[in-house]
Design a protein that fits this description.
The chain has 15 helices and no strands. It has about 300 residues and is mainly α. The relative contact order is 0.13.
Length: about 300
């Protein structure tokens, strides 16, 4: 019992800092949070509601705003499941198998983190735009990708595809392959092994990755701005709608739409903390059980 407590709370055994240092660190942290997090959040909701609920409802229910909300939800509904599938496949291959090019695959998964979203949007224009590599062929067959929903979906997929894979790879590597090999030795097939052994062990990490992917898809601005064409009511997502309204000095409507994005962010934060807590609880339980078995 004593050894377990030391592992769970290692900070308790460290030398305690003086009250002045602790107070200064806490004050500095809270000051930064208040200045750069709480005040901007409050400003969004204050400006969105300062002319009353009626004006707020009018701003978020006018046709262009509703079209932006629908397009944002559509793009998110495409990006999240696609990244869920890719993340599971990539993490499974990297964590469970050895093959040539494995390190290259891990590096390429991180590529969207190193490329500016604006640059990724320009890349898609170079490939699918009117003067791009496939532009003439697409135009001849009546297919429009750039300045349309498919281009926005592609740009969003590019900037969001590392999130699920990056969350699952270290989790699945830490779990090893013992459970899967035990299931296979008892006669389970591949699908049964995945759904009854692997998936329950990674479900909270998977949810965490999907939450991060969804939040990024909803709020993506740079790449979507390049490929969308800013056609109101057709190719404008919620972040672009906020920009358009703000540039038109329609501040109340801009903050009203921004408040919806902020609510999504707060909901995402709550779900993220729940997934973190459950994932940490499972890992801790597995660690304690393993320590008990080893003992």
């Amino acid at each position: 019992m004593t050894m377990t407590s030391k592992k769970i709370h290692p900070v308790m055994s460290r030398k305690q800092e003086s009250r002045i240092v602790r107070g200064l660190l806490i004050f500095t942290s809270l000051s930064f949070l208040a200045l750069f997090l709480f005040v901007p959040l409050l400003a969004v909701f204050y400006n969105a509601l300062r002319e009353g609920w009626a004006m707020y409802w009018t701003a978020v229910s006018e046709p262009d705003a509703l079209a932006a909300i629908r397009l944002t939800l559509l793009i998110t509904a495409i990006a999240a499941p696609a990244n869920l599938l890719f993340g599971i496949c990539a993490a499974w291959a990297i964590a469970k198998f050895e093959f040539k090019g494995k390190n290259l695959l891990v590096t390429l998964i991180d590529l969207p983190f190193t490329v500016s979203p604006v640059i990724s949007g320009v890349i898609f224009i170079m490939i699918f735009g009117a003067h791009g590599w496939f532009g003439a062929w697409l135009a001849a067959h009546g297919v429009q990708i750039i300045f349309a929903a498919p281009g926005i979906a592609l740009a969003t997929l590019f900037v969001t595809f590392p999130f699920v894979a990056r969350e699952l790879i270290p989790l699945m590597q830490s779990q090893g392959v013992d459970d899967e090999e035990a299931a296979l030795s008892l006669g389970a097939n591949g699908w049964q092994t995945f759904f009854r052994v692997t998936l329950p062990n990674i479900r909270w990490g998977l949810l965490y990755g999907v939450i991060l992917c969804t939040a990024r898809a909803v709020g993506e601005f740079g790449a979507v701005s390049v490929v969308s064409g800013h056609i109101r009511g057709k190719t404008v997502t919620m972040p672009l709608q906020v920009e358009i309204l703000y540039n038109e000095y329609n501040f109340t409507a801009a903050f009203a739409v921004a408040s919806l994005l902020t609510l999504v962010s707060l909901l995402t934060l709550g779900l993220k903390k729940l997934a973190e807590w459950k994932s940490r609880e499972i890992m801790l339980e597995r660690g304690v059980n393993a320590a008990t078995l080893e003992g």
